[in-house]
Amino acid sequence: MRLIIGNKKYSSWSMRPWLAMRVAGLAFEEELIPFDDEAGNPAIKAVSPTGRVPVLVEGDLVIAESLAIMEWAAELAPGLWPEAADARARARAAAAEMHAGFGALRRECPMNFGRAPAPLAVSDEVRDDVARIEQLWDESLEASGGPFLFGAFSNADAMFAPVVNRLEIYELSDHPAVRALTAAMKGLPAWQEWEAAARAEPWIVPADEV
């Protein structure tokens, strides 16, 4: 099983399935293709039907979409979704909300593991996104008891992993739920592995440097 990803410093969509699969203990080969925006990412287009990363390749199966890769991973490691049906439904709803929403936060605050934390002036739309994230995380942690959104680590946490980075490096929230989930996520060996590799990368993508 091979997972093709982009820069660990910037590629939020690559981080999500990589983290889920690593925490679940699934064995996979990692292939990193650095962004080359000026050339239109030809190397990525050669291996991805969408021209984007991540891409999972297992035999004849090619999955070129983050959440779909994570669903496939959950077929192999069922613990990636909560066991209880109601919690599993809420976790899937949270993951889907992250997948489809929070556009202002994404546009204005790119994930960047090379950036030192510093405040950033953001729009009211970003503040609205942050308020919704605080509400969702607070309600989920209160209901589950933590340390992750639905108790044990799940695909929902993996979906929000890049948001943990964004909220920290742009100093967008000091909400207790944000502090709690940030501590839990950063305590994962898989998170620490990703972060160390990201910080060691030599590539700089100007568009993602706010």
Description:
Keywords: Transferase. InterPro entries: Glutathione-S-Trfase_C_sf, Glutathione_S-Trfase, Glutathione_S-Trfase_N, Thioredoxin-like_sf. Residues 1-81 form the GST N-terminal domain. This is Glutathione S-transferase. It holds the Pfam family GST_N_2. The protein has 210 residues and is of the alpha+beta class. The protein has 2 domains: 2-78, Glutaredoxin (3-Layer(aba) Sandwich), CATH 3.40.30; 81-192, Glutathione S-transferase Yfyf (Class Pi), Chain A, domain 2 (Up-down Bundle), CATH 1.20.1050. The chain is 53% helix and 7% strand. It is built from 9 helices and 4 strands; from the N terminus they run βαβαββααααααα. The protein has helices spanning 12-24, 42-47, 66-76, 85-100, 103-108, 124-144, 155-169, 176-186, 189-200; strands at 2-5, 29-32, 55-58, 61-63. It has a 4-stranded mixed beta sheet. The longest helix is centred in the middle third of the chain and has 21 residues, at 124-144. The mean pLDDT is 96.
